[in-house]
Amino acid sequence: MKASRIVAIRATPVTVPLEAPLLHSNGAHWGRFVRTLVEVETDDGLVGLGEFGGGGESATAAVEGLIGYLKGHDPFRLEAMRFAICNPTASLYNNRTQIHAALEFACLDIMGQKLGVSVSELLGGRIRDEIPFASYLFFRYGDADGRHEVRTPEQLAAQARVLKASHGFTSHKLKGGVYPPRHELECYRALADAVGGDRLRYDPNSALSLGDAIEFGRAIEGLNNDYYEDPVWGMPQLSRLREFVRIPTATNTVVINFEQLAANVAQRAVDVILLDTTFWGGIRPCIKAAGICETFGLGVAVHSSGELGVQLATMLHMGAVVPNLSYAADAHYHHLLDDVIVGGPMRYRDGAIAVPEGPGLGVRLDRDKVRRYHELFLELGGYAYDRDPGRPGWYPLVPNARWADPAQRLVPDLGVKR
Ligand SMILES: [Mg+2]
Q1: How far is CA 323 from CA 62, 119, 185, 312, in A?
Q2: Which of 105, 107, 125, 320 has the fewest Cβ atoms nearer than 10 Å?
């Protein structure tokens, strides 16, 4: 078989609306996700797809500028590409991990298309054909009529019931770190009541002090917790927390590369590693990390960074081949109002999404949708992920004490008609 050669790399920022703005410990997603779609084209007419978070002129330039490194490169030579653009000793100056991930997705997509097999078949073969997901619950701003707001325990319980009924989730995650921990504790208990014996997980994005995290953790020990995700910042504090709270710890923030994984093996701070195909630099590094987790008895779960269908496909193929994936994956996907892939958004059935069947990643871009959501990006621009539109001038400390007021119903001006 004649080798393919890369001839072009394109990046297209798109903005896809969310049902409502989502709050987190650093700020908010302002009612939309901004993503960059990457297309890698070969001399034999194949186009591979990639995706990463954020977008704008500098992101587009950073991706498309790599054509100087990759023109003529054979997309099958993935390890060579890693060193060509991601040499670890040069990464202090050129951290291209996330861009490399998008290019790796695209090259795997090309390989699969050329060989007529799916990426999961290419990467070890499927153990499962569908991946279970957790409902991902957020505190949310509502509109002027109060629709979509999630601020109180009652609103959270209602939202959980809606998501469970419409998608069939049996595992539920609360993204916290927004309101005072005792308010969030009330909310978490209301969530547990609302979903019966389903599994639960709480993730305040490292906002809690060790004291608050111990109090919260001990209070929820009797619930059906999968794990306690990033309650405090950093491995030393997580390690200390484990002495007080009998719930496995999890992270997607402080073990996101092999050096950190080695440190966590040497001194256990985290029991469950949330793998993210972008943060780790591709699908293959995640599979490699999962193997190390298997060896050292660490749990594996899947992190969501607010992806559209292209990156979601990478998570599905990764989940399909990792034997020790023993938790429902995370996805923000059900908060999105649309997607850019042919056939519209993928669907949950009984809380799971089927691994795409076609060759490569098994998803293609809907050109009309890409055009429409690129125009929306041009119209609205980016948003400040680490700012809360409801609290101008606010920023959090770590650990935080500057909580939002749960008694106050805010309707921030997002400068967008919703
Ligand atoms: Mg997290």
Answers
A1: 35, 16, 33, 19
A2: 125
